[in-house]
Amino acid sequence: MKIICVKTSVKDLDLAKEISKALIDEQLAACVQISKVYSMYAYRGQFCEEKEFCLEIKSQEKHFLKIKSKIKALHSYDLPEILKMKVSASRKYEKYLGENT
């Protein structure tokens, strides 16, 4: 099984919870961690600083396109950050992911 962690950030906790719940309910993610972050970035030629919430979504590689689509459908940003990272995990955690996604 190929395990991934997908990362995105949103403007508020309610949206972070909405995306997380949708992904878990549809068995596209086994677990989502939500953290408060302070982001600094360039966008359309401007320097920006924002308080945001970062989602770390644990899933299987085979679900990435559906995860990406769900994030885009629910996200409030014109250009949402959607990063896919390949990760490794213990066999027990792989089993947990397989049973829940």
Description:
The chain is 34% helix and 41% strand. The protein has a single domain (3-89), classed as Alpha-Beta Plaits. The protein starts with a strand and ends with a helix. It has helices spanning 13-25, 64-74, 91-100, and strands spanning 3-10, 31-43, 46-60, 83-87. The protein contains three helices and four strands. The longest helix is centred in the first third of the chain and has 13 residues, at 13-25. The protein is an alpha+beta fold. Helix 1 packs antiparallel against helix 2. It has a four-stranded antiparallel beta sheet with strand order 2-3-1-4. Strand 2 (31-43) and strand 3 (46-60) form a beta hairpin. The protein is elongated. The mean pLDDT is 97.
Mean pLDDT: 97
Give the CATH level 1 class: Alpha Beta
The proportion of residues forming helix, as a percent range, comes to 25-40%
Low-confidence stretches: none
The biggest beta sheet is recorded as: 4 strands, antiparallel
Global morphology: elongated
Task: Provide the descriptors you would attach to this structure in a database record.
single chain; Alpha-Beta Plaits; 34% helix; elongated; 4 strands; 101 residues; four-stranded antiparallel β-sheet; alpha+beta
